[in-house]
Amino acid sequence: MKRYLSIAFILLSLSGIGQVKRGTPLSVKHIGIRLPATVIGRDTVAIIDMCEVLVCGHRTFANCTDAANYYILEQNVKTVYPYAVMAQVEFEQCEQTLSTMTDRHAKKVYLKQMEKQLMDQYEEELKGLTVSQGKLLIKLIDRQTGSTSYEMVKEMKGTLSAFMWQTVATFFGNSMKDTYDPNGEDRDIENIIHLIEQGVI
């Protein structure tokens, strides 16, 4: 009998769990977050930094030629963009190291070492680029570093060397002085880069 009474008592106790008496307000704990704010008129407005959002519509083309040219450009950007990012990293590292050197001979030795290292690492891959990919790479280097390829070579190796490389580039229909215009003729390239960085393509 005691056993049944114990079971009945436990069941009655369980049935009361989770019930709230009428008229008892529910307690909700809020977590406060501090935000920077500014006062506009008599209102205090929170300032919230939001991530950039890329909005892309379905691309339409006037004809098949335009579509083919765009998708070729997209493929070329995907091929070349990593090299432009690498050039940015290497250029910044070079500038930082050179800024700590005062001896001209030591600078020359360092630049020779860097040139050999880069050639050993990337020469074969860069040889496989097409002429249009090479031209695109020159533009993207300007985008990433803020300096044209001509200015980079001139700064690192001197005016004569830059002039010689510019002559070679011109022979292949390129120019090391090409600059990047994200809001003009290079708008499609800029959009493709944003898609790559967002992981959309």
Walkthrough of the structure:
By secondary structure, this protein is mainly alpha-helical. It has helices at 2-16, 64-99, 104-127, 131-145, 149-157, 159-171, 187-197; strands at residues 37-40, 43-46. Strands 1-2 form a two-stranded antiparallel ribbon. The model is unreliable at 1-18 (pLDDT under 50).
Order of helices and strands: HEEHHHHHH
Spatial extent as radius of gyration: 31 Å
> How many helical stretches?
7
Helix content: 55-70%
Helix-strand layout with pairing:
Blueprint: H1 2-16, E1 37-40, E2 43-46, H2 64-99, H3 104-127, H4 131-145, H5 149-157, H6 159-171, H7 187-197
Antiparallel strand pairs: 1-2
Keywords:
201 residues, two-stranded antiparallel sheet, 7 helices, single chain, extended, disordered N terminus, mainly alpha
Task: Give a quick summary of the entry.
The chain is mainly alpha-helical. It has helices at residues 2-16, 64-99, 104-127, 131-145, 149-157, 159-171, 187-197, and strands at residues 37-40, 43-46. The radius of gyration is 31 Å and the shape is extended.
